[in-house]
């Protein structure tokens, strides 16, 4: 246990030196393979709980690799590198909360305990994947070219016996961050239900508190997506590849 | 997603067909390699939060394989067998809550998402292990003898770069269920903290609601234990091997 | 390394205390979920290399859990239990070598390094799976019944982004070992190719040397199978569940 | 199976579309955390088989992430990304073969089937690890600084219940590729032993055929290493961080 010097052992869900979750804010740097598409609003509405309303069917699906550290635990990249890298795959749906637009992720698959639990605490509908993999290039690999028009990239997520998400992008041109579709704020739900009537519960619609956003290395192209999520037949799919960074400090209960 | 026929997608923590947790009660059948030992009460007190008090230093450590099903999802042993088998390793400390004796597990490592989240919901301090392994015998293996005095069994748990728990038992004689030390009821904590002041919290000391307990195939012997948990030097270690079954319906908040 | 006391470090493929493979003979005890079916002989012939000839299209597919020890390393069930348990999934095709009948497995997926390399050494076409899972029952689980007519069992294998094999069996009656179809001896190929003209090669058709076979706990029933292997549409599928044990001492080159 | 369109299913070890190994040459791009140290020549000599002789005790230990493609399978970075990325950890010993200097790796741990089998085919003493992890930075992560003097990096390898290798590097200054110690050519052994007297064998001392080498992003510093390999007490350890690329076309039998 990392927490042998702390006065007491932290509960796994209470951010701390000996728990599963580092103290926030939490910083992220990620490499994305993304497909934007239109799903069937009627089907999507079954994936999006109240108080959120499906907007127009616009969706985002991505697979990414993330380097993440807690604000007070940056040295973990050296001491516990497996606590600072994970893979994530998700499908997000454009939604409204009253008049505010945003994105709600019915499910977000991740590959580590700490990203699973940290996400659940902040309001993401996280699940643990068995495998998430995506295209990775390396500038010194003699057999690989740098990213350029015509290059294909892809990624997938496997959970149990199912490939829950699979993406393909064929790059057609370089882009800039403002070329990427925006979805507004990120909605979520913090839920901790009871297993007995004596227990308390948490059930809150929240806005994820994101800051410090930056994006680079944008490439645009064609995209395709397959998912076991019932989103309807994906239409008007476009693809993108980019790097992004941001900070999450927690989440605020929506009024 | 299993939940394509449900009206909406369940939140990962809300027991249901498309969530990470089946609806309870939950039934368990397990094969254990266990070591009972005396730890250092002063050190143990740092592993046991209020309102629990360390009793006399008596501890239990085990590694086991568990077959588990939700009450309404027994067919998952065929359709989703990976959702019905997991491995678990834990260290428990004999404690009191007021005048009632029981066992509190400062940490319980498991190998699947659903056992992790189900346990957190019920009040176990669960963590996800990278690997848990224990002795398994097979009656038709021509190279193996049935369990008998002199046989050695063992198990271990690895998380990250650490072997967090390692057990060895040398069987000396057959036993009966009443030979096994008892610890009383099982204590726990249901905790879901906030990441922003606007959020609600759950923080409850609970008693796990266990029933239907049965034990068989008991063997007794010598034991040894190594753990990264700061329990002090383990003393008076004895070992046991057995099978057990039980049902957990949830957990009740302690008065 | 286990081999710190050996005079030199063994090569990973040379059976020994510090290699990936224990010294043989190797003993096995396994629990099977199996489906027998008829494939398309024309398609199967592309899965079966010379000198083997497809017989009549009869095939076997199974998923199993195996406890295995080397003859001189039985204590590893306690010291290194992860070196004694693995999962395996395979499809076998009834074949002839000259006039002798047997079974050839175009591919056999396993979950551990040592079963992968030991199998390749003996002539199995082994591949490493990402996950293999199958129905496991437990007599003390209060939510589970013992196996009986009407019970469904199943298993699957995942490699990369694909579910390469999936089986379902519905038990209809108890059986005896002689109820199970027999396939004769087990054929294989030991192959170690060159990556440069200066190198030697091994390319041998072999018979796996199996002995000590025993079978128990046989149940018969209906079966279904899905696989990414191009076997044609499976027909006349029947299912079986059983336990078996055997010893493999190596493999003999076929004349 | 990827090989459904090939005429026959490739043997797992025969490079081909449906085997575990892509056709070579194989191209590599890697990010390294490395420690150079002096081991005990007497102990090292037990890790280095004839015809190689330990030189002066100089050793290299590294942990890295590798992007690798076969010459004819570059599109797999998109279609099968899990077949193009792996992690590797190794300890190498400076050796002589007659008068030629080089490096021999008594063991090289990797995280995927294809890197394991490809390596064994070429003459590396590869083993499958359970987990290999190393420091990864991301330029857009708001909580991380670029690499600079004072930064700590690290990595580790876990196999079974053991942390077989653990490295720490504290960067002190930028460097250039020629600052890195050189070890000469890479020695290896291609070994495929028999399990029966009727079988053939391969047992060859080889030189790995490496070309296209390039290195960049070199940083130098202090290092420390812990390993379960019996190398003696590591002395005079220095550290380095760098990226490198190369091509391996196979291996040539040494005269």
Task: Give a concise summary.
Chain A is mainly β and about 260 residues long.
Q: Could you characterize what this model shows?
A:
- The structure is a homotetramer of 255-residue chains.
- In chain A, strands 1-2-3-4-9-10-11 form a 7-stranded mixed barrel.
- The first copy, chain A, is globular.
- Chain A is 7% helix and 53% strand.
- Chain A is mainly β and 255 residues long.
- Chain A has 3 helices and 11 strands, in the order βαβαββαβββββββ.
- At the C-D interface, α3, β5, β9, β10 and β11 of C face α3, β5, β9, β10 and β11 of D.
Task: Draw up the topology in text.
4 copies of one chain form a homotetramer.
Chain A: E1 26-38, H1 41-44, E2 53-70, H2 76-79, E3 85-97, E4 100-110, H3 113-122, E5 126-128, E6 131-134, E7 152-159, E8 162-174, E9 185-192, E10 202-227, E11 235-253
Parallel strand pairs in A: 4-5, 4-9
Antiparallel strand pairs in A: 1-2, 1-11, 2-3, 3-4, 6-7, 7-8, 8-10, 9-10, 10-11
């Amino acid at each position: 246990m990392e927490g042998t010097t702390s006065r007491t052992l932290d509960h796994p869900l209470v951010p701390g030196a000996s728990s599963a979750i580092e103290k926030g804010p939490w910083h992220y740097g990620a490499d994305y393979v993304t497909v934007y598409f239109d799903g069937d609003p009627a089907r999507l509405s079954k994936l999006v709980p109240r108080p959120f309303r499906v907007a127009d069917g616009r969706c985002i699906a991505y697979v990414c690799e993330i380097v993440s550290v807690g604000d007070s635990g940056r040295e973990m990249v050296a001491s516990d590198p497996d606590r600072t890298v994970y893979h994530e795959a998700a499908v997000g749906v454009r939604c409204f909360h009253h008049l505010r637009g945003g994105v709600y992720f019915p499910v977000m698959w991740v590959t580590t305990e700490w990203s699973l639990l940290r996400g659940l605490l902040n309001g993401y509908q996280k699940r643990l994947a068995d495998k998430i993999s995506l295209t990775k290039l390396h500038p010194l690999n003699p057999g690989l070219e740098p990213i350029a028009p015509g290059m294909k990239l892809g990624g997938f997520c496997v959970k149990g016996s199912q490939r829950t998400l699979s993406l393909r992008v064929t790059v057609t041109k370089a882009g800039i961050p403002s070329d990427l579709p925006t979805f507004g704020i990120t909605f979520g739900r913090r839920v901790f239900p009871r297993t007995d009537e004596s227990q308390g519960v948490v059930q809150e619609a929240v806005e994820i508190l994101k800051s410090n956003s930056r994006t680079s290395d944008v490439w645009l192209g064609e995209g395709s997506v397959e998912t076991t999520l019932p989103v309807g037949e994906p239409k008007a799919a476009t693809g993108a590849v980019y790097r992004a960074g941001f900070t999450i400090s927690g989440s605020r209960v929506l009024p």
